[in-house]
Amino acid sequence: MSITFVRAFINTLPVGKLFTTRDCLRFGRRAAIDQALARLVRSQYILRLARGVFMRDLPVASTPSSYDIAETKARAFGKQIASYGADLAAQLGLIDRKPAQPTYIINGHTSSFQAGGTTIHLHGACMRKLLPRETLAGQVMRALWHLGRQLCTPRAVMIATARCGRSDRQALRDYIAWMPSWLGDYFAPRTVSLRRR
After folding, report:
1. What is the pLDDT of residues 55-101, one digit of tens each?
2. Selection from 70, 54, 72, 52 nearest residue 121 by Cα
3. How many CB atoms lie within 10 A of CB 191?
């Protein structure tokens, strides 16, 4: 019976929409759901992207990215992910190399899982790093934070913020409360002396 409900649920999903085993648990016991999903994978009705992550096996324009797979898996466990600071620092030209395998930060324990022939790494991080999400200002903050106090120089800040507009710079000032003080000092407004002359 579980397979009927699972198939009906899958039919309601848009083409290319990712879903997880946990999305189907309302239709039966875990063992029955696992068995139903395994049958649907064998019949090529759905495609297994990673352990517990699936997609309707219909022609789609492109396969899901490693970020999409990781985000779907994280969401199933009530977690959030964001781009990894080393990737962002490499994209902004602050460092030469980025991690060889897809890596993201998560508000949970560090872990990894297989997706196809790739290992996706989830690096545990504090919630403050995840709050800005995937905005340009949030990415700049995470890239500079990844560099650390020693490598985060005024020149690195200038390079990282080169594409930032007025609203991005204001967002960076709004994020100061979440940054370590050594990083927040770069974005804090200049204070005006109130001493009388």
Report:
1. 987 665 568 899 999 999 999 999 999 999 999 999 999 998 877 89
2. 70
3. 6
All structural domains of the chain with their residue ranges: 2-56, 69-197
Digit-coded pLDDT (tens) for 138-154: 999 999 999 999 999 99
Average pLDDT over residues 102-122: 93
First to last CA, the chain: 84
Half-sphere exposure of 42 (CA within 13 A, CB side): 7
Res. 194: pLDDT tops 60: no
The CATH label, of 3.30.700, 2.60.120, 1.10.10, 2.60.40, for the domain at 2-56 is 1.10.10
Q: Report whether pLDDT(187) > 90.
A: yes
Residue 47: beta bridge partners? 55
Q: Which residue has tokens 């999409």?
A: 68
Q: What are phi and psi of 116, to 5 degrees?
A: 65, -130
Using an 8 Å Cβ cutoff, are 47 and 28 in contact? Answer: no
Q: Provide the 8-state DSSP code for 189.
A: P
Instruction: Give the DSSP letter string of 34-82.
Output: HHHHHHHHHTTSEEEEETTEEEE-S--SSPPPHHHHHHHHHHHTT--EE
